[in-house]
């Protein structure tokens, strides 16, 4: 094997993006190339080991703008953790995590990640946090829907979405994020059942699934002023029996009937103020 070179200068170069895209696809079979059109997050910092011109191991950080218990908090998220199979067992993951965490610790007090293998991250001081889903039955009302479905294949819809993101208010003051939309866009691009719906009178975009069934799931709200859940349901003309909300609902002028603890894979390192509360961070991420 060729000697390795450590680099942290490639997150936004064409060479670096191409190699990181290839690494993520080879390891996870996830294609992140749609971000070349939809927009990469400029806050990303990448740490990697290279063999000649090939990226063989990577850990990336990206800036997170969170609202936690009424306070605006800047944190770092960890993403794109990958090592090519032939380079595993050589300490590259441990080395890159150490470098990334040293960088983050010098700048913020909270680091957050999502994983289905928490045992990998506990040795670095991460702990799992439980989230909560919120739901209630609906009282049916006669309403006139006023919305338009958006498509990421349409440039005008992408521009509209980016504009609303630039003016976005936090969905919750207890626990929510106002991050760059890159991971949101990728989640939509990769999840066929997701609907992006522009509520014209509310200057809002909502993300829903199962809108034609008896229970609709609300995944996220992007708006400069968060509308009530009743106004959202009315604008959609939703005639089902129940709504399942996957954001912390303190700004929705709504009281859930059921709260169910769930494990969405989030882990934190540092002080996380709403840890003892019922909360849900948006799952609009890959």
TrEMBL record:
One of its GO terms (molecular function) is acyltransferase activity, transferring groups other than amino-acyl groups. Signal peptide: none annotated. Pfam families: Acetyltransf_9. Keywords: Transferase. InterPro entries: Acyl_CoA_acyltransferase, GNAT_dom. It comes from the Bacteria. The keyword rRNA-binding does not apply. Residues 4-145 form the N-acetyltransferase domain. This is GNAT superfamily N-acetyltransferase.
